[in-house]
């Protein structure tokens, strides 16, 4: 019977054989063992071992130096434990023999039980996990060793302590943990969870005053050290203490959100070992990168691992697909968009993302990073430093080289190793996909040899296997193999099974699929490569026709490419959307380049999306406005690609400005992206304007930029862009857009009564120019100016004009704002009780059309109306909800004078009626609500037996 080893890394490195310590003197030898123990039972690549052992001070001949230490380690431990593998070395020990892996398993068990509401079951494993620690991890190693691993180990211990204390609090052990929490909060003053737990423990011990002192100390520390306010968890604990809420549910964990992961459309085959490995890494590492050749299945593995790991991330799992991104300057915005952030302010987007993630425990999946390695690495490093509970899982064809990064090289699928091996992954995938495209195909004794050889020739690359499976409806496995053999012989080279070989295999398989297409299909494939993200049939016909492709040919050719699995089709609303996998798209781009057609096809792509934006702008504030918004949202990746080309080619600058301005006129930047992105494109394009654009384009673009800056609350930017309009072209004061922005500026920045007349003139100028959408926007601002600044008669008359025109237009979004303006006018000059249902209806309609911008003002105005009908409790809650929406959207209320004035008036009134302490409690209830719009609709519902305005006394009463 062999000796039993125990390995300990949660403290100084220790090895025991049958209970007896094993001496291991040399520091580098100990570092090598620790580097292997971190991934015990798995192959650790040579390059990874070198980084862990020597850091940045690697010897000149790493393989030789490493082999020397491996031989010495084998002499100390025995040859059977340390195995050589093609890409590295494997320490063949069971997970239970390594304290780190026992710790990870115990924490996983405890976390699962705690999240399921079973704190008694969670307590034991979590206490046992923490007891495994004997001090700082591996303090006896050289300073440069395992620098990418040690911070993650320390973070894992703190995470386990938080969970164990959560379990103790849920079991009523608040008195026992007080001294420990004082020490932890002192040692980790920026870790908000310890302050939160200490506050709750003090509160449940009857020490409310000390709990409030704890909050003030934590808030002061965060403000002094980081310049930030306490996060949602700490604020919620503060609210509970103020409200005297002693419910045990306060300690059961945080609210869970599902995040955003796409549903799988095909079965997931194999990858059990890789999936276990990645899922395990995500429990103990904060940065994991899956690398490998295109088509090897990095994305599918990442998404499946993320789904499995979701229970460990209370704030959800979120996917950012970076493949469509062409402008590195939009990386921060792409990540913000993937997280559901719609920050419209002029502050740097990275700051908003960092603040959003700072107190959240979530998993961020960054897919397809290879074309943006440097900017992605910089952003990830920043986020990991400032968001201590964030974990990042990336896919890329090369590592990001971020400190602490764990790199997992995704191999091909397992291959048949014997004559009866039908369980290997590559063969299972081939059979599964063939069942869909070739229902009559089966793996039989007669065809097994050819099928197995086919899987080997494809190196187990999933995309290559799937492309071959499609052909089984017309060719036998042996026939496919013969045709592949012809191509492989042409490109014959020594094969060692490495990444270069797999990359060559995939290229050959795609070449073969390309050869099997007709010439017309090949031409369409190459031209479709200019699309980013996806496209519809109209776009394909507009961009890809010409020369050998007639408009009527594209539909049938596209269907043929779908049948061959070159193009994928799916429904998105009333239209079918098409897309190419990134590897297939890049192949098509190479072929397009070989044809010399890239410039011509990309120009047709730009013109198509210029025309699309122009048609959307012309149809804005009409019956199809919501359809246009949906279409623009789906095509935003292509629009960004078109804008990027326009910003790079001098002759296209004017075209780019037309696109950016028209998207502003349709409010696309409000609905589908952010004002900041709209401003980014406008400023980037204007910076290139060197006499190649028309004066009217220049004025329109500068006026639109001023309008965007105004909506962001950027007074300085508004003035600068308006000033730039004046010398930019002939008689700019007569340009309707300039008149409109000047009138809006008079309303929102100056609170000047002349805004009513200025906006009326802008309205007429737009009408004369035949621009109905812009006419509606001017009418809306005119009615708003009259409601805030005009006399009563003007306000009410203007309201009627606006409502009538909006209803006649049949535009749902326009109608929602007309209803809102009518409610504000009623609130200021009529009856607040009658204003409430109008304002509520406007909010409900805005929510129904997916308007995220409108509810910022809808909830705020409901707060004004609720305060006006003398219900201070719900008014305070609505003011808190509105503030939360403004924070999420990045709106600066101080830059919008009429709104700010009305807000201060309502807040002062409510504070006086409630008192400061009750105001804070009610305000925080709105600010921290998960769905603030739903809360506002519920609080003001006429169907509630205690609804407004008849609500009785109580928390929300008088």
Which features characterize this protein?
alpha/beta, six-stranded parallel beta sheet, three-stranded antiparallel beta sheet, 61% helix, globular, disordered C terminus
Topology, pairings included?
Layout: E1 5-8, E2 14-17, E3 20-21, H1 27-37, E4 43-45, H2 46-54, H3 62-77, E5 82-85, E6 88-91, H4 99-115, H5 119-131, H6 150-170, H7 174-187, H8 192-204, H9 208-225, H10 232-243, E7 259-260, H11 272-284, E8 287-291, H12 298-309, E9 317-321, H13 331-338, H14 349-357, E10 363-367, H15 373-386, E11 391-396, E12 405-409, H16 425-437, H17 448-457, H18 462-470, H19 477-490, H20 499-515, H21 519-528, H22 537-544, H23 554-563, E13 568-572, E14 575-579, H24 582-595, H25 598-618, H26 625-634, H27 636-646, H28 653-665, H29 668-671, H30 675-688, H31 695-711, H32 715-728, H33 736-750, H34 754-768, H35 772-789, H36 792-809, H37 812-829, H38 832-848, H39 854-868, H40 872-889, H41 897-914, H42 916-927, H43 932-939
Parallel strand pairs: 7-9, 8-11, 8-12, 9-10, 10-11
Antiparallel strand pairs: 1-2, 2-3, 4-6, 5-6, 13-14
Helix pairs in contact: 1-2, 1-3, 4-5, 4-6, 5-6, 6-8, 7-8, 8-9, 8-10, 9-10, 10-42, 11-12, 13-14, 14-15, 16-18, 17-19, 18-20, 19-20, 21-23, 21-24, 22-25, 25-27, 25-28, 27-28, 28-30, 28-31, 30-31, 31-32, 31-33, 32-33, 33-34, 33-35, 34-35, 35-36, 35-37, 36-37, 37-38, 37-39, 38-39, 39-40, ...
Task: Count every helix, treating DSSP H or I runs of 4 or more residues as helices.
Answer: 43
Summed over residues and divided by their number, the pLDDT gives a mean of 84
Strands, total number:
14
Residue share in helix: 55-70%
% residues in beta strands: 5-15%
The termini sit apart by 80 Å
Strand order of the largest sheet: 7-9-10-11-8-12
Structural class: alpha/beta
What's the Cα radius of gyration?
32 Å
């Amino acid at each position: 019977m062999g000796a039993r080893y125990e390995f300990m890394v949660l403290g100084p490195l220790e090895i025991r054989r049958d209970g007896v310590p094993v001496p291991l003197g040399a520091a580098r030898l100990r570092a090598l063992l620790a580097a292997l123990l971190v991934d015990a039972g798995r192959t650790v690549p040579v390059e990874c071992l070198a980084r862990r052992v020597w850091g940045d001070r690697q010897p000149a001949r790493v393989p030789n130096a490493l082999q020397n230490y491996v031989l010495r380690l084998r002499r100390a431990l025995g040859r059977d434990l340390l195995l050589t593998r093609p890409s590295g070395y494997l320490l063949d020990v069971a997970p239970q023999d390594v304290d780190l892996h026992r710790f990870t398993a115990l924490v996983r068990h405890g976390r699962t039980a705690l999240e399921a509401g079973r704190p008694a079951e969670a307590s034991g494993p979590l206490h046992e996990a923490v007891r495994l620690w004997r001090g700082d991890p591996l303090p006896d190693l050289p300073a440069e060793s395992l620098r990418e691993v040690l911070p993650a180990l320390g973070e894992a211990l703190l995470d386990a302590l938080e969970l164990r204390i959560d379990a103790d609090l849920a079991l009523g052990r608040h008195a026992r943990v007080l001294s420990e929490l004082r020490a932890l909060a002192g040692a980790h003053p920026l870790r908000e969870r310890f302050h939160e737990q200490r506050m709750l423990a003090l509160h449940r011990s009857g020490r409310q005053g000390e709990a409030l002192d704890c909050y003030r100390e934590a808030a002061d520390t965060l403000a002094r050290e980081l310049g930030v306010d306490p996060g949602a968890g700490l604020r919620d604990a503060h609210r509970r203490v103020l409200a005297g809420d002693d419910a045990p549910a306060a300690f059961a964990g945080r609210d869970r959100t599902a995040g955003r992961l796409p549903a799988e459309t095909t079965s997931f085959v194999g990858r059990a070992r890789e999936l276990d490995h990645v899922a395990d890494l995500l429990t103990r590492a904060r940065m994991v990168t899956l690398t490998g050749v295109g088509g090897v299945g990095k994305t599918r593995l990442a998404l499946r691992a993320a789904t499995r790991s979701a229970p460990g991330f209370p704030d959800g799992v979120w996917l950012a697909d970076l493949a469509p991104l062409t402008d590195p300057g939009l990386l921060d915005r792409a990540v913000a968009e993937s997280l559901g952030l719609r920050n419209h302010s002029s502050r740097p987007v990275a700051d908003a993302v960092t603040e959003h993630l700072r107190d959240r425990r979530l998993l961020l999946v960054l897919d397809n990073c290879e074309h943006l390695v440097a900017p992605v690495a910089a952003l990830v490093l920043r986020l990991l430093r400032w968001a201590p509970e964030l974990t990042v899982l990336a896919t890329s064809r090369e590592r990001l080289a971020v400190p602490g990064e764990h790199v997992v090289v995704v191999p091909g699928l397992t291959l048949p190793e014997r004559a009866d091996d039908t369980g290997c992954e590559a063969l299972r995938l081939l059979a599964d996909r063939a069942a869909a495209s070739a229902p009559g195909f089966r793996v039989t004794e007669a065809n097994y040899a050819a099928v197995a050889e086919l899987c080997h020739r494809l190196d187990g690359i999933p995309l290559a296997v799937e492309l071959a499976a499609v052909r089984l409806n017309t060719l036998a496995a042996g026939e496919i193999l013969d045709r592949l053999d012809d191509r492989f012989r042409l490109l014959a080279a020594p094969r060692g099974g490495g990444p270069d070989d797999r990359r060559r295999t995939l290229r050959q398989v795609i070449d073969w699929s390309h050869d099997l297409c007709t010439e017309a299909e090949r031409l369409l494939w190459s031209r479709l490569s200019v699309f980013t993200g996806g496209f519809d049939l109209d776009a394909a016909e507009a961009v890809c026709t010409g020369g050998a492709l007639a408009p009527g040919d594209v539909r049938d050719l596209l269907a043929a490419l779908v049948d061959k699995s070159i193009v994928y089709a799916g429904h998105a609303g009333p239209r079918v959307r098409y897309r190419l996998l990134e590897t297939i798209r890049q192949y098509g781009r190479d072929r397009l380049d070989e044809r010399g057609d890239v410039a011509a096809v990309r120009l047709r792509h730009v013109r198509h999306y210029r025309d699309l934006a122009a048609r959307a702008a012309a149809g804005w504030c009409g019956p199809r406005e919501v359809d246009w918004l949906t279409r623009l949202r789906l095509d935003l990746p292509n629009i960004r690609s078109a804008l990027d080309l326009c910003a790079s080619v001098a002759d296209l600058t004017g075209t780019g400005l037309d696109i950016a301005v028209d998207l502003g006129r349709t409010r696309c930047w409000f609905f589908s992206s952010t004002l900041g992105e709209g401003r980014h494109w406008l400023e980037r394009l204007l910076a290139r304007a060197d006499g190649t654009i028309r004066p009217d384009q220049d004025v329109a673009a500068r006026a639109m930029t001023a309008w965007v800056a105004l909506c962001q609350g950027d007074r300085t930017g508004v003035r600068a862009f308006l000033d730039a309009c004046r010398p930019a072209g002939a008689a700019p004061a007569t340009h309707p857009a300039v008149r409109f922005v000047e009138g809006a500026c008079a309303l929102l920045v100056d609170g000047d009564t002349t805004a009513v007349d200025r906006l009326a003139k802008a309205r007429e100028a737009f009408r004369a120019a035949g621009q109905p959408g812009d006419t509606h926007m001017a009418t809306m601002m005119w009615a708003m100016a009259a409601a805030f600044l005009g006399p009563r008669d003007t306000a009410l008359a203007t309201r009627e004009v606006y409502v009538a025109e909006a209803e006649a237009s049949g535009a749902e979004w326009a109608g929602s704002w007309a209803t809102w303006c009518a409610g504000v006018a009623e609130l200021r000059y009529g009856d607040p009780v009658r204003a409430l249902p109008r304002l509520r209806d406007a909010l409900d309609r805005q929510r129904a059309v997916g308007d995220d911008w409108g509810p910022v003002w809808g909830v705020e105005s409901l707060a004004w109306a609720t305060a006006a009908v003398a219900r201070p409790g719900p008014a305070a809650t609505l003011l808190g909800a509105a503030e939360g929406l403004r924070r999420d959207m990045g709106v600066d209320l101080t830059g919008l004078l009429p709104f700010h004035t009305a807000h201060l008036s309502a807040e002062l009134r409510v504070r006086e009626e409630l008192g400061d302490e009750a105001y804070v409690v009610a305000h925080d209830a709105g600010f921290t609500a998960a769905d603030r719009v739903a809360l506002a609709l519920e609080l003001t519902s006429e169907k509630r037996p205690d609804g407004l305005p008849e609500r009785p006394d109580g928390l929300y009463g008088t």
